[in-house]
Specification:
The complex is a heterotrimer.
Chain A (H helix, E strand, L loop, with lengths): L17 E15 L5 E16 L4 E5 L6 H8 L7 E6 L8 H5 L2 E5 L11 H11 L4 H14 L15 H13 L5 E5 L7 H18 L2 E5 L3 H7 L2 E6 L2 E7 H7 L3 E8 L12 E6 L2 E7 L5 H10 L2 E7 L3 H14 L1
Parallel strand pairs in A: 3-7, 3-8, 5-6, 6-7
Antiparallel strand pairs in A: 1-2, 1-4, 8-9, 10-12, 10-13, 11-12
Chain B lengths: L1 H22 L2 H28 L8 H14 L11 H10 L2 H5 L5 H31 L8 H27 L8 H14 L11 H9 L7 H7 L6 H34 L3
Helix pairs in contact in B: 1-6, 2-3, 2-6, 3-6, 4-7, 6-7, 7-10, 7-11
Chain C lengths: L1 H13 L21 H23 L3 H26 L10 H22 L5 H7 L2 H5 L5 H7 L7 H17 L6 H31 L4 H15 L8 H10 L3 H12 L15 H26 L2
Helix pairs in contact in C: 1-2, 2-7, 3-4, 3-8, 4-8, 4-9, 4-10, 4-12, 9-10, 9-12, 9-13
The chains are: A alpha/beta, B mainly alpha, C mainly alpha.
Chain lengths: 333, 273, 306
């Protein structure tokens, strides 16, 4: 694909494309304490977040439920007004110029479709065409490309209510891209999808980011999304940024362990090797844990020299476990 | 006998659950009470004008006519004159096919929903009925019964009215087995209910044959009959005959619902759910 | 406001994706908050497009549409049936004969019907706030009010307008009035201004739901309740109620003040006769206040997110 969903002319590099400085969001929450009695107290949903996303980057934004992820996304899209701090997306203050920003961003809400339920998919796209005032030629090109890459050809004339979840998600992603957005926000884009649909969506996003330089910010519960798509991850919890860096670094921060799975010729007692410990034995198969930062090669060589090895594989740590460990470490320190 | 009490407990639990579910919508309840009260005030003035013009219309004096207004506002949601009870949910379950699950429950479909609807009705009688009635009583000259027995007799009539209303709405909901979109039927049903229940105007005021027909139809059991019991129009043997009228319609309509349910069940089973 | 209505009637024909021909690069002027005229134009455009989509949606179930349109007509006709039943027993109500009451009824019902047709879905705002779908509207390049107003646009509500217009037509034939050019002029003025006043009530009700999402029924008290109130002559009601409807929630300007002038009857509060011609001004003022209330409501939503 030499043509891509990019705005003409090619975007200039911009390290401060998305810029947050000490962004805060405080909610007044009224809790019921009796039949009609309410107690007010404040909740800091986002508590001083600062980060930069350069133009063209693809970033994963993760954290437990209620950590402040969606609140951040809502402030970035202009839905919510920050209580404090400074926020710019493509040089625009989202809270002040919501509609102007809207033309330059695309948003996909994983569980809320923006498509017209009872009408054929193409009708929703025609509405986007007119609402975003997309020039005819651009619209035709972008639609063609999305149809091709997201495999929507047979679905355009099908009423949205008859689409499967995966088909609808692809339809929603296309709807968010017809107006050449410079930023794409995806909120749980693979939630509830089957394996094939997930792979399709991920492949498309990867190509979109690589070829058109669209900046992508994605929240997800599915860590495979992050592993396959994002070089950079931000972890948020209790409204604060806990980690911002490469995915591999997250493992180090979490001081996590990787797992070596070895298949032996026959059942043996737990292997005795330095720098690793056996965590599980099941017949001729054994699981050995070793530090994530260490290389697996010397360990494999040591085992092969002393034991009858048939097969082996290395398992990456579960990121959710890593994050959980990271929180635990912070809490105890 | 053991099975009997077990069943009873189950349905009591369903009714209680439904009561609690409606009780969680506090703001909506307060908003509804406000709206009922506003409508009560508007209708009160039109009734005053009407009864000023023609005292004793429909056999009511003015105080009785105004009592009728506020009773109507108090009962509007209790007997679900305009729908809004279980039927929307049941129709949705029929449309999505989830009703197949209900059919395999160890409880009777009709009794299950009836229990839930009774729970709803009791909540709405207490929450949405009491306040407008009290407001009307404080601001206008109403003819409230002085003896406890009349209050009790009226409560029984209201409960019977709820059962008749349920039986009607159950029939409406089951139509969703045959019709793709039940909204039209539901709308026609509440139109009939609004007109023939006496919500719009007491059925005693309807002229000639129209009035006689309206008073014989099942919808009159929803508002007109409980109101007349409350106003002390039916006493002694007459009261029993009135109850028999309500119970008779309830029995006929519930039986019709059962038959329709049996046909529908066969349909679901044949289609494999 | 009349323009708002005219546009959406044409909408269905335009929905086929016809080229707009004025697509330009998104410039800084686009949707800038300091250009109310541009915003109003944007809003009307979005309203037209979205309502056209809803019309197409409902036409997917034609039989159901026909039935609900008929039902809408019948439901509103029941109101009038109650009035007819009353007049089957009496000759006058509050000193007004049937054609006079029918005139007030028809005027109120037509105005209310037009407002209900145009933005009757405002009472769904609370639901949208609750289930979070309001957010999907906030990321679109169009004013939220226009999008919410067009939400679930339903042509079946023409049933109510038709019913009101028929009763008004009957009243105009049955009334024995001496017509002056001023009275003739006042009739369309009354209907359009009345629709404007009711629309303002709908918008304020919507704004209120930003604060209390479950309170959509409060709105009904003022919209449907107000409509019911206006269907009877003011002489039926207590002075305080008439005062409230004149000065507090000025729905009396929908049909009572201009209507009583046409009928040649004095207004109970002793207002001067020129007050009968103020409804357009009242409508504009109401819409302006409603716009402010809406902005405050939306601002509160965007700062609380609840």
């Amino acid at each position: 694909m030499d043509t891509a969903l990019d705005p003409d002319p090619a975007p200039a590099p911009d390290p401060d494309f998305i810029a947050l400085d000490g962004i805060e969001k405080v909610f007044d929450v009224r809790k019921k304490t009796g039949f009609l009695r309410r107690e007010r107290h404040q909740v800091r949903a986002v508590d001083g977040i600062t980060f930069r996303v350069p133009r063209g980057e693809m970033v994963g934004y993760i954290g437990p439920n209620g950590a402040g992820k969606s609140t951040t996304i809502k402030m970035l899209t202009g839905i919510l007004t920050p209580s404090g701090g400074r926020l710019r997306v493509a040089g625009i203050d989202p809270a002040r110029e919501r509609t102007r920003l809207a033309r330059r961003i695309g948003v996909v809400f994983g569980q809320r479709t923006t498509l017209w339920w009872d009408l054929p998919l193409i009708d929703s796209y025609r509405l986007m065409h007119r609402m975003y005032r997309i020039p005819d030629r651009r619209y035709a090109e972008n639609l063609d490309r999305c149809v091709q890459l997201l495999d929507l050809g047979d679905l355009l004339d099908v009423p949205v209510r008859q689409l499967s979840l995966g088909q609808r998600m692809r339809g929603d992603i296309a709807a968010a891209l017809l107006h050449d957005p410079e930023v794409l926000y995806l909120d749980e884009p693979t939630i509830g999808l089957d394996v094939v649909s997930k792979a399709k969506v991920r492949g498309f996003l990867r190509d979109l980011n690589a070829e058109s330089g669209t900046t992508v910010l994605l929240t997800t519960h599915d860590l495979t999304d992050i592993e396959q798509l994002c070089k950079r991850v931000m972890v948020i919890d209790h409204g604060r940024l806990m980690y911002d860096g490469p995915l591999a670094g997250l493992h180090e921060v979490g001081e996590s362990e990787r797992t070596l799975v070895v298949d032996l010729e026959r059942e043996l007692p737990p292997l005795d090797v330095e720098s690793a410990r056996v965590v599980k034995v099941e017949g001729p198969r054994q699981w050995l844990a070793f530090p994530a930062a260490a290389s697996a090669a010397p360990l494999v060589a040591a085992i092969a020299a002393r034991y009858p090895l048939v097969d082996l594989s290395v398992r990456e740590p579960d990121i959710e476990a890593v994050i959980a460990k990271m929180y635990a470490d912070r809490a105890s320190s | 006998m053991f099975v009997g009490t077990g069943r009873f407990r189950l349905y009591a639990a369903v009714a209680a659950g439904s009561f609690r579910r409606f009780a969680t919508y506090r703001i909506a309840t307060v908003a509804g009470v406000f709206t009922n009260t506003v409508f009560g005030v508007i209708l009160t003035y039109t009734y005053i004008a009407l009864w000023d013009e023609k005292p004793g219309l429909g056999g009511y004096d003015q105080a009785q006519a105004l009592t009728y207004v506020w009773l109507g506002q108090a009962l509007l949601t209790t007997v679900a004159v305009m729908g809004g009870g279980f039927e929307d949910e049941l129709m949705a379950r029929i449309r999505t096919g989830d009703v197949a699950i209900d059919l395999y429950r160890p409880a009777d479909l009709q009794a299950w929903w009836l229990a839930g609807d009774l729970g709803r009705a009791v909540f709405q009688l207490l929450a949405r009925g009491a306040v407008p009635m009290a407001f009307g009583g404080l601001c206008f000259q109403l003819a409230l019964p002085g003896d406890v027995l009349t209050w009790l007799a009226a409560t029984v009539a209201v409960l019977l009215g709820v059962v008749v209303s349920f039986a009607l709405r159950f029939l409406v909901a089951l139509s969703a087995f045959w019709l793709l979109d039940g909204a039209g039927v539901a709308q026609m049903a509440w139109l009939a209910s609004l007109f023939f229940s006496g919500m719009l105007l007491p059925l005693n005021v309807f002229p000639g044959a129209l009035g006689e027909i309206a008073r014989a139809l099942p919808w009159s059991a929803l508002i007109q009959v409980p109101a007349d019991v409350f106003l002390g129009k039916h006493r002694g043997a007459d009261l029993l005959a009135t109850y028999a009228f309500q119970a008779g319609w309830a029995a006929v309509l519930l039986t019709a619902g059962r038959l329709l349910q049996a046909v529908a069940t066969r349909r679901v089973v044949v289609q494999g759910g | 406001m009349a323009e708002l209505l005219r546009h959406d009637q044409e909408g269905a024909a335009r929905a086929a994706g016809r080229d707009e021909g004025r697509a330009g690069p998104p410039g800084p002027a686009d949707g800038a908050p300091d250009r109310p005229l541009a915003r109003a134009r944007d809003g009307l455009r979005a309203y037209r497009m979205i309502s056209a989509m809803w019309i197409r949606s409902t036409m997917a179930y034609r039989a159901s549409f026909a039935m609900t349109a008929l039902g809408n007509f019948a439901a509103t006709a029941l109101d009038f049936a109650a009035i007819l039943l009353m007049f089957s027993q009496v000759d006058a109500l509050g000193g007004y004969r049937l054609p006079e009451v029918a005139f007030l009824y028809g005027a109120a019902a037509t105005s209310f019907g037009l407002a209900d047709l145009a933005i009757g879905s405002m009472d769904r705002l609370g639901r949208r706030v609750r289930d979070g779908t309001l957010d999907t509207l906030l990321v679109r390049p169009a004013p939220v009010l226009a999008q919410v107003a067009a939400d679930r646009f339903a042509l079946r509500r023409l049933g109510r307008v038709t019913q009101g217009a028929l009763i008004l037509g009957y009243a105009l034939i049955a009334l024995d009035l001496t017509w002056t050019p001023l009275k003739v002029l006042l009739i369309p003025l009354m209907l359009v201004s009345g629709a404007g006043i009711f629309m303002a009530v709908f918008v304020v009700g919507g704004a209120f739901q930003f604060l209390a999402q479950d309170a959509s029924e409060v709105q009904n008290a003022f919209t449907y309740g107000g409509n019911t109130l206006l269907q009877y002559p003011p002489s039926v009601f207590g002075k305080d109620l008439v005062r409230g409807a004149t000065f507090l929630v000025p729905i009396a300007f929908v049909n009572w003040l201009p209507g009583l002038y046409v009928l040649g009857r004095p207004y109970p509060l002793g207002l001067p006769s020129w007050a009968a011609f103020t409804p357009p001004l009242v409508a504009v003022a109401c819409c302006a206040l409603a716009g402010l209330a809406w902005r405050a409501g939306l601002r509160s939503y965007r700062s609380t997110g609840s």
